[in-house]
Design a protein that fits this description.
Blueprint (H helix, E strand, L loop, with lengths): L3 E2 L2 E3 L2 E3 L6 E6 L4 E7 L3 H17 L7 H17 L1 H12 L3 H22 L15 E9 L2 E5 L7 H12 L3 E5 L6 H12 L7 E3 L4 H10 L5 E5 L2 H11 L5 E5 L4 E5 L5 H13 L9 E7 L3 H12 L20 H16 L3 E4 L3 E2 L4 E2 L2 E4 L6 H4 L6 E7 L2 H9 L3 E2 L1 E5 L3 H10 L4 E4 L14 E2 L2 E2 L4 H7 L1 E9 L25
Parallel strand pairs: 1-5, 7-8, 7-10, 8-9, 10-11, 12-13, 12-20, 13-18, 17-18, 20-21
Antiparallel strand pairs: 2-3, 4-5, 6-24, 11-23, 14-17, 15-16, 19-22
Helix pairs in contact: 1-7, 2-4, 2-6, 3-4, 4-5, 9-10
Length: 503
Amino acid sequence: MRMETYGMFIGGKWVKSKSQKYMDVINPYNEKVIAKVPEGNEEDVAEAVKVAKKSFEAGVWSKVTPSERQAVLLRIADLIEKDIDRLARLESENQGKTIKYARESDFPFIIDTFRFFAGAARIFEGIAANEYSGMGTSFIRREPVGVVSCIVPWNYPLYIGAWQIAPALAAGNSIVAKPASYTPLTLLEFAASAKRAGLPDGVLNVITGKGDTVGKELVTNPDVDMISFTGDTSTGKEIMTLASSTVKILHLELGGKAPAIILSDTNLDAAAEGCAVGAFWNSGEDCTAVTRVLVHETQHDTFVERLINIAKKFRLGNQLDENTDMGPLVSKRQQERVKNYVEIAVKQGAKIECGGKTRSPGYFFEPTILTNVKQHDKVCQEEVFGPVLIVQPYKDVNEAVKMANDVQYGLAASVWGSHIKDCIRVVNELKFGTVWINEHGILANEMPHGGYKQSGFGKDMSLLSLEEYTKVKHVYIDQTGLVRKPWHYVVYGKKSKNKGDGQ
């Protein structure tokens, strides 16, 4: 492929960085440079924020009717759909996910996300107008926040970008988006599609660059009203600290350490299949991926054997090959991170049942299953973000629930069993924002997604997500017509005995 040199997208135009520097974009399979993007700096961010603020205050998007916003969002979805093969290939080549996963999972959901929020833009809900005080009418207005900074992760560059951008646009905000340094290409391509769809210039701006410069400036810039961030918990904590100086609105979807509890009456074949798929999809680079399987001690060895048989069937290779099941990890750094976790686990007593090795060329890591892992081992408590699955035995369900909850994260979990009443009892005790029964990983735009504990706060998808990108205003209308209201006496004067006094 011909190497492309991209610009940043500011005010509806492609521009170079004021730094005059560029960053290489790498294909993680062959480690070759496939594109160059500007290495943005603080000046670039300041300019993009200025443009976004100007567009918001001018009302070119914030003050148009919901039906007009809907029309543009629908056209965006249509343009992505027409270009799905090219965009999916670009996403696969840049990120490392398989072409079948990008084309047949990510992009259909991206398209549906924009269509869902196109409709949702027209059905804002609030408290019905009423005379709650007895003297006037109250009602709720939902208004756009203003300038929203969307900081997008590298594991789902446009998929999660859509989770942030679609509701922010539907609510009438202006946006400065920052893709991850590793995976900027499809978000830049998206900006071009949004312009073709009729989104006014300045409403969507895309800045490329490093987190410690561009990201930090976005978080601290006083004209940015809201930060929407998806990424690891440690970075989320830094963002909270930096954003506190200007008391920004925050929407944080952070790390996960998803357990799968296998009840003793479970169909083990179905559970093993579901857990393996849930652990190794997208090369394990997913905050909702199954990372811990909790299985009854009498079934532990049998279940591990079934997992091993499935893991060995995964075909690793070129992510653009239709027959590949698992592509490379996104970067050399991520490959080293996963390798390091496994090496530490082994030193702490873990047993590698299968996998556990890197492959080259490319940033591959084999589907890995670990046993003999203790609850407070590093690999059990921290987010590895790679194809590593640990299996732990439990004696009874109460112990399983305790083990599942005994991590700092609370994003997703699953329960597997033959009797729904038993599954529901476990679901009710789990401290996770999404819990699946006899499944792991299904999402829908109609349903919210977000975590408990240190997995962050705020919801992606659903109407609840749309509310995240609005401010609520209470409006009160006096209906008495009185100069001196009946309650004014509590501030000065005496209480009137005449009900009509003051008219």
